[in-house]
Amino acid sequence: MAENKTELQPIPGLPHVKAPSAPQVKTRILTAESVAEIQKKMVQYPVRKSAVLPSLTVAYRQVGYLNAEIYAELSAITEIPAKQLAEAATFYTLFPKKPRGKYLIMVCDNISCALCGADNLLRYLEEKLGIKVGETTQDNLFTLQIAECLAGCSSAPMMQVNHDYHENLTRAKVDALIEGWRKDG
Length: 185
Fold this sequence. Notes:
There is one protein chain. The protein has seven helices and six strands, in the order ββααααβααβββα. The strands form two sheets. The protein has a four-stranded mixed beta sheet with strand order 4-3-5-6, covered by helices on one side. The protein has a two-stranded antiparallel ribbon with strand order 1-2. It has two domains: 2-91, no CATH class; 103-184, Glutaredoxin (3-Layer(aba) Sandwich), CATH 3.40.30.10. The protein has helices spanning 32-42, 52-63, 68-78, 82-91, 111-115, 118-129, 171-184; strands at residues 2-3, 26-27, 103-108, 142-147, 159-161, 164-166. By secondary structure, it is α+β, with helices and mostly antiparallel strands.
């Protein structure tokens, strides 16, 4: 069980805003480091709810996905109802709700990418990886998803893998990327 004893300070210049009470939070999933980071973020915002996304981000970066158990721990740390945390997380596709592969492949299918072959790219990835959109390979290396727009219209078709963009894609480029990730996997 992770335990945090960080004492929170009031927000400078905002005496009317009370920082969370920093209870001795015992967590089963989140580490003491994550709890401390969340509590530090809480005091940076004049309104507690403003720290929802930063708190979700800390948990996501540690665990790799979010679920009801994580929302409950975040609620104990932030004093924000778990339901509100879940509602925010559900709105953003950035936060997956179940475990996924080491490499999250998101293929853009907005109009520019679609006109430049995103559908063919997606079908090729499904065939190459042996999975359908929304699935993860058996070795837990790859998860395939569609993204509405990745803002790379001038270099379509493109995909984002974890935090990196890959543009002007061809089958040869995709093959080289997949093989490289398999070696690193």
